[in-house]
Sequence to fold (462 residues):
Amino acid sequence: MKRGHTLVLPAKLADELRAHLFPGDGLEAAALLLCTVTGQRRQKWLGREVIYVPHAHCTRRPDFITWPGEYVEAAIDRASARGDAVIAVHAHPGGLFAFSDIDDESDRVLMPAIQAGTERMAGSAIMIPSGVMRARLYQEDCAMPVDLVMKAGNDIGTWWNDGATTSGPLKPTMAFTGDMRASLARLSICVIGVSGTGSIVAEQLARLGVGEIILIDFDKIEERNLNRILNATIADIGSLKVEVFAAAIRRYRSDGEVVSVPSSVATREAVLVACEADILVSCVDSAEGRHIADRLSACFAIPLFDVGVAIPTEPLPGGKRRIAEVYGRVDYVYPGGSSLMDRGVYDAALLEAEYLARTAPQAFAKKIADGYLKGMPEEAPGVITVNMRAASACVVELIARLFPFREFANETRARTIFMLAEGDEDWFAESQFQKGHRFPVAVGAAEPLLGLPALAVQRRVA
Fold:
């Protein structure tokens, strides 16, 4: 999957930018977008702050605008202090989704000034009334297109430099079509946890044609896993899950890329690979894994889907137990929205308990490690059907965010829970969760990584 540059805008920032650029008078308006630049294999520009140029402080026409020096200097000063890059954004109220000759002429003056002031690459961008954006970057006097501009919110907007979009007025793509497969072929999705549920999610993504799939899991296949990990065989026992699954995908796909990371997601190596994905899917069963995914989503402005399954049991007379319920849950989290921690998927007490389980097992011995069936230790539970239901719900949710097809707003489906014993399904809107603003948004790979000292660069002491 070849891509050079991606610009990602958290929804709140994108919406505020659009409101400023289109005040309703049909004239151009301007703003300066400050971005964290991150990525090794491909570069991502993460929009983190906007400096708005007041409408009254510049000359505005339907096809022309001036850039007041004081606001350009303010953006340079602010960006330089944090190591950010600057993208100059202006409106095209007439709807032209291309850079005009006037834009080219303006950039020839403005871009060198920003580059000199920040000592970094600079960029320019246009936005049309629908909110769709196109951007380009400058290295000295050479312009290069930003391949993808992405808006991460209740819907995931993807606006490609060639005019293709997953939704909106420019070549929208219909869900569940061959065009959808072609669009997915341009994206990178990271699956964290490639076991019972994660292997099923990854299989669907691969068969749907996702261009790059990043697989993260440190574990090896055991005999007890064979009844629920897709593509695993007796011959694979003792092999790394990610390597087995990557090899399986390569056997039936020659047009995609698979990146396998045989490490815990709570390692610096895994985080630096995962952060280059466009979308995250968390299929872990630990609070620590979800905590890392939560922070990844915020710090690198990546939409996150989290899926889980639980089968609580209750006691019966005579020492037996019965199924109390069969739950599946899918949460969708976007940068700047409520986090998994805000929603109670995990909490600080659970994180501490898992830490004790790893470092001081004797202090944790009283807790039952009961896996899928709560209250019953099961080495090889027969849960693949429940896993498949939950994994399918997760991927359908992902499709709905990229290629809206529902007759209701995606905002109303921040969380979906199905209950098979009761035969019910509940939905929770984003507005029903309190935002805790726990994690910084779009700060990229600032140290310590994800704000966690354990992931900081280890410096040798002489």
User: Anything to note?
Assistant: The chain is about 25% helix and 25% strand. The first helix runs from residue 11 to 21. The chain has two domains: 5-160, 178-455. The mean pLDDT is 92.
